[in-house]
Amino acid sequence: MDPAEFDAWYDQAYPRLVHQIHAMIGDREEAADCVQEAFVRAWSRRRDLSSDGGRDAWIRTTAYRLAVSRWRRMVRGRRDPDRALGLATHEGPPDETRVAVVTALRALPEAQRRAIVLHHLADLPVAEVAAETGVPVGTVKARLARGRTALATLLHEGAHHG
Amino acid sequence: MADLDPRERDVLDALDDLRQPDHVWPALDAASVRGLGDRRRRRRQAAAGGLVAVVAAAAVGSAVLLTGSDEAAPLPATSPSATATPSPSPSAAPSTPTPSPSESPTEAEPSETTTIADDIPLAVGYPDINEDGTEVVVERGPGEGVMVCDQRILTGGDAASVASVRFLGGEDFRSRTLMVFGDVAEAEAAMDWTARTVDACAGSPEGEAVTVLGAVEGADSLLWSKAYAMGEGGPAIATDLFRLVRVGNAVLLDTTGGEASGPATSKDDEQVTSTRNAVAPVVEAMAVYEEG
Questions:
Q1: Are strands B146-148 and B161-168 parallel, antiparallel or unpaired?
Q2: Which terminus of chain B has fewer Cβ atoms in its 10 Å neighbourhood, N or C?
Q3: φ, ψ of residue B103 in degrees (nearest 5)
Q4: CATH 1.10.1740 occupies which residues in chain A?
Q5: Which site among B15, B255, B259 would you substitute to test the A interface, given the most A Cβ atoms closer than 10 Å to its Cβ?
Q6: How many CB atoms lie within 10 A of CB B54?
Q7: Which phi and psi (to 5°) does residue B165 adopt?
Q8: Does A152 contact B231 at a Cβ distance shorter than 8 Å?
Q9: Average confidence (pLDDT) per 10 residues, chain A, 162 residues
Q10: Nearest CB to A90: which of B11, B17, B25?
Q11: Are A53 and B47 in contact (CB under 8 A)?
Q12: CB contact under 8 A, B19 and A87
């Protein structure tokens, strides 16, 4: 991958990958940090990266693992909830509906949330979700069904309590 | 799609609405990201250059860990005296370890060495730089110790000399604390007290995620692990491994936190063997504290 190719990929993929990781972990700034760090690692290992559509999946998986690791360290009290690079992203004010959906997503079990984000937000077919998360297709289908049902209840409750 | 439950239709609409990302401007432009990636690559290549020497040293040190530094030493975790067996629990914080004649019937002369040399290779195998760009450095004075059922222990606050180092990586955390006690009895008492504290924690409701391996690497060792799960009953996302090694009047605490690999159950577990090899050069250097 040459610099021009990387730059084009970064500019185009960064917003959507931040969006997807944000939906998975519920923290926009942390998602932005982790995706950026994943791109740094991708460039440092560019010879290992394939040139097909697997690049986005690599960034998504790396960023998600980073987010989980950071969350884990914060839980242990070893790391203040600061940002690794200390740099803020620039974005507009949050949309209330989106905030409600992301909040509801956060209430789902992690496996269901990840399946829903990959399928409904990242537009991955069920088989690709299965490949990226390392579980059988049937398990992904079950997670999607249970996740949507739980999400319906959560959004319904939120609408009646809001 | 027309026969969908209205609430499920709402969910699909909400997810559809969420599908289009707001525009987010990256904090760094692509050229800066590449610059950071190039630096990361150079660091990795530099670290790989030093690996050969470390592996050679590890081969020697592993033997020390598995055979024990002193086969004649009494087993620290099984005190022969019933009166010397307190029952620590997380709610009743065990007192600071203090040596008693009944806990260490055979140790003899105090060690002559209670200081830590500047060239002790405590950080061997660690990267030079933390994830946040700060340097990995060996520091003097009490370390951060470890949490055992909400109790922080093994900071080295009662030792004659302490040095510690930690590495904070993107996906892992490692630390080592070398505690040199006034004599062998104190070091043995620290090992014994820690073993009982960890056992008590593992047997309590708070210690559900703690697995005690015990002295699987020799009489003067103690290993335990702790698993972390994403949410209650969720899948394991990380495993921490804790290792305590005594050589004479010195005790080394080695901790590693990495991705989920399930609880370590034996000395042949992959996480156990890899960390044993990594810490072996430090254990070898601790020979200066060996009794006799």
A1: unpaired
A2: N
A3: -80, -25
A4: 1-91
A5: B15
A6: 16
A7: -150, 150
A8: no
A9: 89 89 84 89 78 77 79 54 34 60 83 89 87 85 89 74 50
A10: B25
A11: no
A12: no
Give the pair of three-digit tokens for residue A150: 């739980």
Q: Which residues pair with B224 in a beta bridge?
A: B212, B242
Best residue in B20, B29, B34, B129 to probe A by mutation, most A CBs within 10 Å?
B34
Tell which residue, A66, A19, A18, has the closest CA to residue A41: A66
Chain A positions in Cβ-Cβ contact with residue B238 (cut-off 8 Å): 68-69, 72
Q: Which residue has the higher pLDDT, A155 or B160?
A: B160
* pLDDT one-digit tens code per residue, B171-216: 678 899 999 988 888 888 889 889 988 988 888 887 778 889 888 8
* C-alpha count within 13 angstroms, C-beta hemisphere, residue B201: 25
Are residues B289 and B113 in contact, defined by beta-carbon separation less than 8 angstroms? Answer: yes
Element (H, E) at A40: helix A28-44
Q: Is the dihedral of CA B180, B186, B187, B189 positive or negative?
A: negative
Binary contact (A101, B14; C-beta < 8 A): yes
Residue B49 CA, chain-centre distance (Å), reads: 25
Chain A nearest-CA distance from B160, in A, is: 26
Q: What is the 3-state secondary structure (H, E, C) of B88-102?
A: CCCCCCCCCCCCCCC
Decide: B139 and B161 in contact? Cβ < 8 Å.
no
How far apart are alpha carbons A158 and A99 in whole angstroms?
11
Write the pLDDT tens digit of every residue in B39-82.
Answer: 777 766 665 544 444 444 444 444 445 433 332 222 222 232 22
Assess whether pLDDT exceeds 60 at residue B256: yes
**Looking at beta carbons, which residues of chain A come within 8 Å of B18?**
23, 98, 101-102, 120-121
Task: Provide, as residue numbers in chain A, all residues whose Cβ is less than 8 Å from the Cβ of B175.
Answer: none
The pair of structure tokens assigned to B124 is 């061997």
Return the structure tokens found at A45. Answer: 């290992």
Q: Show me where the domains of chain B are located.
A: 45-289
Tokens of A110: 């992690």
Are the C-beta atoms of residues B210 and B201 closer than 8 Å to each other? yes
Name the β-bridge partners of B174. Answer: B167, B256
| ipTM score | 0.72
Give, in words, the CATH class of A93-162: mainly alpha
Q: Which fold does the domain B45-289 belong to in CATH? A: Protein Transport Mog1p; Chain A (3.40.1000)
Q: Is B104 helix (H, G, I), strand (E, B) or coil?
A: coil
Bridge partner residues of A145 (DSSP): none
* Dist CA A44 CA B80 (whole Å): 56
In words, the CATH class of domain A1-91 is mainly alpha
